[in-house]
Amino acid sequence: MKIPAEMPRLKGYRFPREVVAYAVWVYHRFALSTADVEDLLAERGVIVSRETVRKWVNRFGRHFADCIERDRPAVAYKWHLDEVVVPINGVKRWLWRAVDWSGDVLDILVQPRRNAKAARRFLKQLIARFGQPRIIITDKLRSYIKPIRQLAPNADHRAHKGINNRIEGSHRPTRKREKLMGRFKSPRQAQRFLSAHDQINTIFRPRRYRLSAISYRHARAAAFGLWEDYAAEMAA
C-alpha cells in the first residue's frame, strides 16, 4: 500500500500513520490473522506484536468505516434484508444485515432474537440513517411484515427467498472471518469488527465480473486514493 511518507506522525504512536493504515488495510482486505499481519510488517522491517496490530485494527478500523459511510453515494431505493445465526460463546445470536441492489452493505446489527421486535429495531435504525426505501426484499420470515408496514408503509415488500440471493453472498466474508478468528468472543466484538469490515470491503471489493479489466483497475486505484485520504484524516 503506497501512502505518502509526508503524512504527519500520529501523536502518541511510535510508528507513522502509513504503517498503521497499511496494517488495518491488509487485515480487513484479506483473510489474515493479526499474526499474519505481524509477519508481513516484520518482512518490511516493522517489528510490532500481534497485540499491537489488534489494537490498531480496533482503534482505526472504525475510523475508516466512518469515512466510507460519510462519503457513500446516495443509497439505492431497493434494499435486501436478511439474518444469519452467529454462535458466540455457545449462545445463538443473530446477525441482521441490509445491502442495497448493488450488494454494498448498508448496516449490520447483532441481536439475541430473530423476531418482530428485533426486525423493527434494525429497520428503524436503517430508516433513521438512509430514509425510506421503495422496495424491501426479505426471505419469508414473518417477523418482517408488521415492522415494514409500520415503519415503511409505502415500500413494496417482496418476501421471497429466491429473489434475495444478492444478500446471501454478503454473508460469506463473515463466515470466513468467523472461522479464522475462532468464533467471535462477544456480541460487542462481533458488532465492532463486522461493522468496520463490511464497509472497508465495500470499496475494495467492486463487482469484478461486471467490470472490464481497465474499469476494475480504475476502481481499485480510486479505492487506494480514498484510503490515502482517510489515512491522512486519522487522529490519535
Uncertain segments of ≥5 residues (pLDDT<50)? none
Say how many strands there are. Answer: 5
What gap, in angstroms, lies between the N and C termini? 21 Å
Mean pLDDT: 87
Structural class of the secondary elements?
alpha/beta
**Overall morphology:** globular
Radius of gyration: 19 Å
Largest sheet: 5 strands, mixed
Reading the helices and strands in chain order gives HHHEEEHEHEHHHH
Describe the strand arrangement of the main beta sheet, using strand numbers.
3-2-1-4-5
Number of helices: 9
Which percent range fits the helix content?
Answer: 40-55%
Strand content: 15-25%
Q: How would you describe this protein?
A:
This protein is α/β, with parallel strands linked by helices and 236 residues long. 50% of the residues lie in helices and 15% in strands. The protein has nine helices and five strands; from the N terminus they run H-H-H-E-E-E-H-E-H-E-H-H-H-H. The chain has a five-stranded mixed sheet, with helices on both faces. Strand 4 (135-138), helix 5 and strand 5 form a beta-alpha-beta unit. Helix 2 (34-43) crosses helix 3, helix 3 (50-70) crosses helix 8 and helix 4 (116-130) runs parallel beside helix 5. The longest helix has 21 residues, at 50-70. The protein is globular and about 55 Å long. The two termini are 21 Å apart. The model has no long low-confidence stretch (mean pLDDT 87).
